[in-house]
Description:
By secondary structure, the chain is of the alpha/beta class. It folds into 2 domains: about 150 residues, Periplasmic binding protein-like II (D-Maltodextrin-Binding Protein, domain 2); about 160 residues, D-Maltodextrin-Binding Protein, domain 2, CATH 3.40.190.10. Helices cover about 40% and strands about 15% of the residues. Strands 1, 2, 3, 4, 5, 6, 7, 8, 9 and 10 form a 10-stranded mixed sheet that branches. α7 packs across α13. The protein is globular.
Amino acid sequence: xxxxxxxxxxxxxxxxxxxxxxxxxxxxxxxxxxxxxxxxxxxxxxxxxxxxxxxxxxxxxxxxxxxxxxxxxxxxxxxxxxxxxxxxxxxxxxxxxxxxxxxxxxxxxxxxxxxxxxxxxxxxxxxxxxxxxxxxxxxxxxxxxxxxxxxxxxxxxxxxxxxxxxxxxxxxxxxxxxxxxxxxxxxxxxxxxxxxxxxxxxxxxxxxxxxxxxxxxxxxxxxxxxxxxxxxxxxxxxxxxxxxxxxxxxxxxxxxxxxxxxxxxxxxxxxxxxxxxxxxxxxxxxxxxxxxxxxxxxxxxxxxxxxxxxxxxxxxxxxxxxxxxxxxxxxxxxxxxxxxxxxxxxxxxxxxxxxxxxxxxxxxxxxx
Length: 368
């Protein structure tokens, strides 16, 4: 009986050992490159905008990256400001490796010490990035290039003999009263409109007052201000709006993929070059893999895929696909600029409050 009991114990020990290490690693043999020390598959967590950015990463870039590296990409969709708040809440125990931010939130995240520095010594492809898209040097990698600009329905303008838009001031004209789709001040597109109206009327980042005065006229010819593109796009698609200010990638999508005769304009005062940028979260749990992904994201291969979605490629020498050139193409003669993000962050709260108190109440007053 004792002998039988001993044999049973030995058999159980052998079975347990087999479960713990079904494929024993030979002495000196390295573990597979796509696994952790515990043998688990490597993965990173990214948080960024939904819509076209999420689509490009989930459907194209992440699968290619996994094929090359074995690293799984998990994606959490959200708005830039929401993501910033989440990263801040998790700062003592980060769960996100890479966060996509609009330029102003890159500034905020950097000021709060929530993101790591990035340069070409850690992300080699940074050396190929067009500096016009870089929000802050050595902080985040621009990935989805865009401008925020006016756009108009070319067929309606031609049919009704309306003069094409040449200046930001042309957004406030009686010819298309009630047929506008402008974003509210809480949206980057709305604040960008306010800034450019200030520039068009002799002001700027140090003097936004002229822009606020012109914005009141803009409000007068508008029935409402929209919160985001989800609200604005149906108005344009259904013919309720012929004039708007949008991100260039949305204009490209509406014109090329939805058949709306929409064309972007670069006003004489210029447009702001910027991008959704990938930031490495400070003390992220998978920093090495995250850096590898960011480097792949700004490679020519990935940027070609991104440009197919209507974004400007951020790599020097690359251009958008031909199907978008007549819609959102930038000419060498077009005026572009970069905003002073530090100053912008300092004034945005004040002018957002004033817009709500002084501009929003003017909505629709000139429609009668």
